[in-house]
Amino acid sequence: MKLLVLATVAVTALAALSGCADKAAETARADCAAPAGDVNVYSSRHYDTDLALYEDFTCETGIKVNRIEADADALIERIQSEGEFSPADLLLTVDAGRLWRAEEAGIFAPVDSDVLKQRLPANLRHPEGLWFGLSTRARIIIYDKSKGAPEGLANYADLADPARKGEICMRSSSNIYNISLLSSIIAHKGAAEAENWAKGVVANFKQAPQGNDTAMIEVVAAGQCRISVVNTYYLARYAGGDAKDKAIFDKVGVIFPDQDGVGTHVNVSGAGLIKTAPNRENAVKFLEYLTSESAQRYFADGNNEYPAAIGLKANSAVEQLGSFKADKLGVAEIGRGQAQAVTIFDRAGWN
Fold first, then answer.
1. Are residues 24 and 94 in the same domain?
2. Backbone dihedral angles phi then psi of residue 267, each to the nearest 5 degrees
3. Are residues 118 and 184 in the same domain?
4. What is the pLDDT of residues 243-297, one digit of tens each?
5. Residues 143 and 113 in one domain
6. What DSSP state is assigned to residue 126?
7. 291 and 344: one domain?
8. Are residues 59 and 94 in the same domain?
9. 102 forms bridges with which residues in the sheet?
10. Averaged pLDDT score across all residues of the chain
């Protein structure tokens, strides 16, 4: 009975949240496809531009997108609680760490799609087809331009150099982006070297970890910290913003780390099919659509992310940051190292 009640509540919520989609359907263009069922998306992406992406898919296929938006962990727990009665068809979220959590929760079903295999590079696909990377973002080093480029800073490893003492501001170790970065370091260099790195960075902190990526950009631009680490799409927002934002952007220098080695750490937004999906066929169509050129442009132009599909270019705002060699480490591998990364951060005193 509890599962049935949960399912009823979820369906009601989906209906309420899809009201905008219903209204859009009523005024759909004459060239849009006839109604062809539904797909229910549980999403932790909170970007307004995704709404246009959903509407484009509905127009193209006739499949209406119903959505529930919440924090990724809450959505994973909700799908587990709803059990076999869950209306969820897809989980759409950001970062390999959250995709890994969903995988560990056992809520995904494999998808065998030639379209997805052709469009996405192997490192952005789960090896068993449990989830797929749909857009990427690089984790870069930024610095205060007024003080000049820090000498000898070219790689993530250099952040642990004692020469950087008192220069670094960072987000909390509980932040999923930092966990995934450390997980990639574990994969490449081993746990012992990763722990030495984390301890070295902690020793160089100017202040206790706090704030988000946006805050890190602004403290560096203001000269309060010389160095930080952020995701590219946050900085690109300033490049494409108003005069105040552009003034902040102009004060920040960019380093794409490890260009002489494995390349800059890259993470994803991604999605996976729920194993109890009531609209499996429509869900797979939506997954495939999300890797199409039109959908990839929404990711790129709407949120300054890099397209995941092979052969497509980023938008002008993020291209202003510069070209770079990306780390080709499999995103699934980044996910697997999450728990060990958290333990290392705790031992290093990275709060």
1. yes
2. -125, 180
3. no
4. 999 999 999 999 999 999 999 999 999 999 999 999 999 999 999 999 999 999 9
5. no
6. -
7. no
8. yes
9. none
10. 92
Are 11 and 121 within one domain? yes
| Dihedral in degrees, nearest 10, Cα atoms 260, 265, 266, 271 | 140
* CA dihedral of 24, 29, 34, 39, whole degrees rounded to 10: -40
What predicted TM-score, i.e. pTM, was given to this entire model? Answer: 0.89
| Cβ proximity of 314 and 139 under 8 Å | no
Amino acid at 134: L
DSSP code for 313? P
Tokens 């897809």 belong to residue: 90
E strand map for the chain: 38-43, 64-69, 90-94, 108-109, 132-144, 227-231, 252-255, 266-274, 306-307
What's residue 49's pLDDT? 79
Q: What is the three-class DSSP state of 32?
A: coil
Give the domain range for residue 64. Answer: 2-136+267-319
Mark whether 209 and 244 lie in a shared domain: yes
Contact between residue 214 and residue 295 where contact means Cβ atoms under 8 Å apart: no
Tokens of 191: 């746990």
Residue pair 204/234 in contact by the 8 Å Cβ criterion:
no
Q: How far apart are CA 178 and CA 184, in angstroms?
A: 10
Is the domain of 31 the same as that of 99? yes
Q: At what angle do helices 2-17 and 19-26 cross, to 10 degrees?
A: 40
* pLDDT, position 115: 98
The amino acid at 5: V
Percent of the chain with pLDDT over 70: 91
Count up the domains in the chain and report the number. 2
221: domain CATH number is 3.40.190.10
Using left for φ > 0, alpha for ψ between -120 and 50, and beta otherwise, residue 259 falls in: alpha
